[in-house]
Amino acid sequence: MEYNTTRNQLVMREYGRHIQKMIDHIRTIEDKERRQANAHAVIELMGFLNPHLKNVEDFRHKLWDHLFLISDFKLEVDSPYPIPTAETLKAKPKPLSYPKRYPKFSHLGVNLEAIINKALAEENPEKRSGFANAIAYYMKLAYNTWHRELVHDDAIRQELNSITGGQLEFTATPFVKAFRERDDRFVKRGKPGGFQQRMSSRPGQQPTGMGNSKNRPPQKFTKKRFK
Hints:
Blueprint: H1 16-28, H2 32-49, H3 59-70, H4 86-90, H5 110-120, H6 125-146, H7 153-164
């Protein structure tokens, strides 16, 4: 009997123990043509056991890479794709440099600063005016996002003049919906621990409901006899 403790480590669990044994057997075949034919047969079997790889781009390339990975890169067969090595598998990607940008107006962001620079470089007066209106709208929207009170257009115009040195002036008034808190006085709530009373539309009639059950006259129940 063969125990798991005596077996070699399973490289890829997706293919199972039998595929790994087949690949180990292919490594022992001395005939090159026979070894190549068995490698193609194992590739077909690997694709059959994992049909979801067919939806992946270059899935056969992945199968050949998995074949060499399971064989510990010791299988000597010809591949239609570049043969991977252990060095390429363990190679680490180069670290990405973090972009170091220092915006002049951090409360507005780098993107708005880029738009302002593009608007200042624009020579067409109509496009320049459109840039100014869009910038003013975004500035007012950003202010209302972090503040509950409504900002006046003069404050936006003053800040835009200080940023651009008076080179950009917006003509259209930017409309941004202001933030409004919910007034709890207009929220209908029932009594704590009870039901809300149902008001009657008739004048002079008392409200009916579960809250004033004491004022209602007692109802008489009579027993019916069935013959």
